[in-house]
């Protein structure tokens, strides 16, 4: 995933989108989310994992967009 693609993400994404940005495979991403070791904050919403993009950008070392 390019920096431009990450910048265009909505406020919250699913776990696999975040994993793709971090270059983490599916099995590893779910294992890290379950144990609380995913590289950025993960929210459990119902039966799904959601990742706030602000935390994803921080994990990638990207500045938060102004505005």
TrEMBL record:
Superkingdom of the organism of origin: Bacteria
Protein name, entry field: Helix-turn-helix domain-containing protein
Naturally occurring in which organism (per UniProt): Amycolatopsis echigonensis
Pfam family, one: HTH_17
InterPro entries xrefs: HTH_17
Domain Helix-turn-helix: 18-57
């Amino acid at each position: 995933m390019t920096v431009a693609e990450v910048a265009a993400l909505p406020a919250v994404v699913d776990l696999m989108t975040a994993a793709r940005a971090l270059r983490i495979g599916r099995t590893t991403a779910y294992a890290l989310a379950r144990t609380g070791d995913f590289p950025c904050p993960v929210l459990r919403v119902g039966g799904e994992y959601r990742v706030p993009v602000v935390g994803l950008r921080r994990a990638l070392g990207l500045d938060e967009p102004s505005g």
